[in-house]
Design brief:
The chain is about 40% helix and about 10% strand. The termini are far apart. The protein is built from 12 helices and 4 strands; from the N terminus they run αααααβαββαβααααα. The chain is an alpha+beta fold and about 280 residues long. The chain has a 4-stranded antiparallel β-sheet, with helices on both faces. It folds into 2 domains: about 70 residues, no CATH class; about 190 residues, 2-Layer Sandwich (Alpha-Beta Plaits). Helix 6 packs antiparallel against helix 7. The protein is globular.
C-alpha cells in the first residue's frame, strides 16, 4: 500500500501527541515544514506557514524571558523600603467552649517551647504573642498568602496538640479558622503591638477600673518580656526569646514614629484610642 509523506507525518504526530491539543500545538514547525514539499503547499495560507515556522522561536523567547525573570526577582521579604517585607499581620486563634483556660502555667510553658521551635520557620515568623483564656493573639510575618496559610496550619496543629497533651483530653480544640488582619501603616502596627502585649490588661480593665489595671506588670503569658520598645522598662532578659526578630520595616522601626509603648497603657481606653490603639 502506497504511503505518502503527508500520511506518514500525520500518522506519527497522531501517535505521539495529545489529540485534544490545538492543531498548531500538535503539529510543531518541523511537521508543518514537511508539508512545504507536498502538493498541499498552495492550499495552506501564508500566515499559517509563517506562524508555524516561528512557533519554536516564540517558545524559546518565552523560556528565556521566564528564566531572566526568575534570576532578577528572587523570593524575598519584599516591600516599599529596602530590607522590608510583606506587611505584618495580627492573627487570632480561638478555642472551643469547654476547653480549659489556656493561661494555665503548664500550657503557657508548653506553648512557649513550641513558639521557640517554630519562631524562625520558613513559612511564617511569630514576632509576638499573647495567650488569653480562650484565644491566642499572634503578630506574624509571612512572605505571601500561601506561606501564611501553611504556617498557620502548623501553628494551629501545635496549639491543639499541646492543649490535649497538657490537659489529658481528646477531641477538637479550635473554634473554626483563624482570623488574620493585615497591618499596613506604622500607626496600625503600634496599635497591634500594644493590643497584643497588653491584652491581659485590656481584659482586666473590663473587671476592674482601668486605673487599677494599668498598674499590672508584664504579662507572663505573652512575649512582652522580650519586647524592646517599652518606654519605661529595663532591657529584655538574656535568655533565648521564644519569638523571631522582626524583618519588616513596620515592625522593626516604622511603628516607633508614634512613640514607644508605656506599661500603663490599657488597649481600648480613651488614652490608647488617642494613640491609635483599639
Amino acid at each position: 500500500m502506497y504511503s505518502s509523506p503527508i500520511m506518514s507525518v500525520a500518522h506519527s504526530a497522531t501517535r505521539t501527541d495529545n489529540r485534544r491539543r490545538p492543531y498548531l500545538a500538535r503539529h510543531p514547525a518541523s511537521t508543518i515544514k514537511a508539508l512545504l514539499n507536498t502538493s498541499l503547499l498552495m492550499k495552506i495560507p501564508n500566515w499559517l506557514l509563517t506562524f508555524a515556522e516561528n512557533i519554536d522561536t516564540l517558545k524559546c523567547i518565552k523560556r528565556r524571558w521566564q528564566l531572566e525573570l526568575d534570576l532578577k526577582m528572587p523570593a524575598r521579604w519584599g516591600g516599599a523600603r529596602a530590607g522590608s517585607g510583606r506587611n505584618p499581620g495580627l492573627v487570632t486563634i480561638r478555642v472551643r467552649r469547654g476547653v480549659p483556660s489556656l493561661r494555665s502555667v503548664r500550657l503557657v510553658r508548653e506553648l512557649e517551647r513550641s513558639f521557640r521551635v517554630s519562631a524562625e520557620r520558613a513559612n511564617i515568623r511569630v514576632v509576638h504573642y499573647s495567650i488569653q483564656h480562650d484565644h491566642v493573639h499572634l503578630l506574624t510575618e509571612a512572605a505571601d498568602a500561601a506561606a501564611l496559610g501553611r504556617g498557620m496550619k502548623s501553628i494551629a496543629a501545635r496549639l491543639a496538640r499541646a492543649v490535649n497533651r497538657v490537659f489529658a483530653r481528646r477531641g477538637a480544640v479550635l473554634d473554626g479558622r483563624y482570623h488574620h488582619r493585615e497591618l499596613a501603616t506604622p500607626r496600625e502596627v503600634r496599635a497591634a503591638l500594644a493590643y497584643v502585649l497588653l491584652n491581659a490588661r485590656k481584659h482586666a480593665a473590663q473587671r476592674v477600673p482601668a486605673s487599677v489595671a494599668s498598674g499590672f506588670g508584664l504579662d507572663p503569658a505573652s512575649s512582652s518580656r522580650w519586647f524592646e520598645g517599652w518606654a519605661d522598662h529595663p532591657v529584655p532578659p538574656a535568655d533565648r526569646p521564644a519569638v523571631a526578630r522582626p524583618r519588616t520595616w513596620l515592625l522593626r522601626a516604622g511603628w516607633r514614629r508614634h512613640g514607644l509603648i508605656r506599661l500603663e497603657e490599657v488597649p481600648g481606653s480613651e488614652t490608647s484610642r488617642s494613640r491609635g490603639v483599639s
